[in-house]
Amino acid sequence: MKEKFTNAQRAEVLVEALPYIQKYANRIIVVKYGGNAMINDELKKAVMGDIVLMSQIGIKVVLVHGGGPEITDMLTRVGKKSEFVDGLRVTDRETVDIAQMVLAGKVNKSLVSLLNKHGAKAIGLCGMDGKMIKARTLDERLGYVGEITDVNVEIILDVLERGYIPVISTIGCDEDGNSYNINADTAAARIAGELEAKSLMLMTDTEGILRDKDDPSTLISKVTTSELPGLIEQKVICGGMIPKVKCCTDAISHGVKKVFIIDGRVPHSILIETLTDEGAGTMVVEG
To answer: Which domain holds residue 88?
Structure first.
């Protein structure tokens, strides 16, 4: 049964949101979308609804997505085993072709369709379009896993100017036309920097940065880039959170004002972080 709200409570919510709506109006927010929020259908609908709402109130949202589980599923279907080195998928020619098919095709177009169904104008893009993301081999052991060499956001700005929500899959290319699978967090950070975005939101499967990984009440709500190395040394930040905070630092070094690490498992976490006093995760700012 849905919770009932009085008209006064609804009005209070809108009044609280107004300063944030004004602050973000006509500004760019980059959302990196992945994790459980991408797999769970109900969470996916909630995220797409949030993005449409943000767009309708004048925020220019750029959606950058991953799709690792979907790639793994397709590789399994064709009888190909996934192999990882340092957390990155070993990507031979066949695997990068499958990654391109899954990310730029199935995943990207399903998100575009869902956004359009919610009343938005969304358009799917791939890092290869307009040479948006140029890349080279990150590590010979990994094959066609890419390291970004350049990002051209002209096509993204054109799409935003025409009122569309760009939905970007992170397949890059080099001058010879080779395709590369690129980490979505890394790509989102570079894209946000080049767009001079107001903020970058990294959706994860954790509450944010926790002082005690087993205790959600120890959430660090705000941290500066200068504090991050110390937290890594203390092993407060460890494992898969290390590359995430590196992306935060990279984004801020490229001009993004704030980066939020938010829990994609929480319905409407994007709106809670963007349009309320409460916030929903860890905010990283320049130190």
So the answer is: 23-285
